[in-house]
């Protein structure tokens, strides 16, 4: 059974259909100073993956953006050498 545009249902498992709006379904990594400035001024921030937005949701409610996570891991690896 197919649900138009948002999910595909197979048996009892629902699999999300990914589209261009997926970046909104993730919590993103941002430089701490940029996040603090955004909270104070309302200015948008740029995530490590390049997404630009004004943070307004609880990031703990979303999975971490895989691209941000990969970039952060590379930075940590370089910093430990």
* Quaternary assembly: single chain
Structural class: alpha+beta
Biggest beta sheet summary = 3 strands, antiparallel
> pLDDT below 50 for ≥5 consecutive residues: which ranges?
6-10, 16-20
**How much beta, percentage-wise?**
15-25%
Write down how many β-strands occur, each being a DSSP E stretch of 2 or more residues.
Answer: 5
Work out the radius of gyration. 16 Å
Order of helices and strands: EEEHEEH
Strand order of the largest sheet: 1-2-3
Q: Specify the helix fraction band.
A: 25-40%
**Judging from the principal axes of the Cα atoms, what is the shape?**
globular
Q: State the end-to-end CA separation.
A: 51 Å
- Domain count: the total is 1
> Mean pLDDT, as a whole number?
79
Number of helices: 2
Protein topology:
Elements lengths: L1 E2 L3 E4 L2 E4 L15 H10 L3 E2 L5 E2 L12 H14 L2
Antiparallel strand pairs: 1-2, 2-3, 4-5
